[in-house]
Amino acid sequence: MRLYKSALDQAAQEALRDEIREILRIAPLFQPVMPRTRKNFSVRMSNCGPLGWVSDVSGYRYQPDHPDTGQPWPPMPERLLALWRDLTGYPRDPDACLINYYDCNARMGAHQDVDEQDFDAPIVSISLGDACRFRIGGVARGGSTQALALDSGDVLVFGGPARKMFHGVDKILPGTSTLLDPPGRINLTLRRAR
Ligand SMILES: O=C(O)CCC(=O)C(=O)O
Ligand SMILES: [Fe+2]
């Protein structure tokens, strides 16, 4: 796993925030549900790009349309594709970008990202807004874990052996950024789903 502290400067963060705001106008945040427990995620989600990750009572999957509006996901901003090409050098572009919105109480339990068909491709994860305490483990559940502070503009690349590392978000650190209105944290993950 590679961590790029402040990979996006203030101007780039603001430009990306504005593009995401526009995307969320077309593809509003939806409320994902955990298939087994039928409980709501505390995070709300949307997507851009050809495919989007969704979760409801029938399971986790990638699909080309928004679960509430039935509309195709908006295109992925060129600046995200440029960042992917720059940081990964991977020969194919991402076909999905999951947008997670965390309010000050949201978190994400430890999990692996394994719903994709292409594990050779890395995952690029971008943080915007409030900082969080991120947690990383190994490739097996239950091993030792490490906490990591992620600030607005930081970018993580999960590739190679780190592609299937367990990870999650312990907590949001409210009031640590003024980038977003409403406040909170946005995380973008660029993936190759197929
Ligand atoms: O919010 C984050 O930093 C992680 C998000 C994540 O792991 C995911 O969407 O799969
Ligand atoms: Fe993940």
From TrEMBL:
InterPro entries annotated for this entry? Alkb (IPR004574), AlkB-like (IPR027450), AlkB-like_sf (IPR037151), Oxoglu/Fe-dep_dioxygenase_dom (IPR005123)
Q: Name one GO biological process term.
A: oxidative RNA demethylation
Checking PROSITE patterns in the record gives:
FE2OG_OXY
UniProt domain Fe2OG dioxygenase: residue ranges: 93-194
Q: Which GO terms describe its cellular component?
A: cytoplasm
Quick one: which residues bind substrate? W53, Y60, R61, Y62, D115, R141
Q: Where does Fe cation bind?
A: H111, D113, H167
* Domain of life, per lineage: Bacteria
How many cofactor units bind, and how? Answer: Binds 1 Fe(2+) ion per subunit.
Q: What is this protein's record name?
A: Alkylated DNA repair dioxygenase
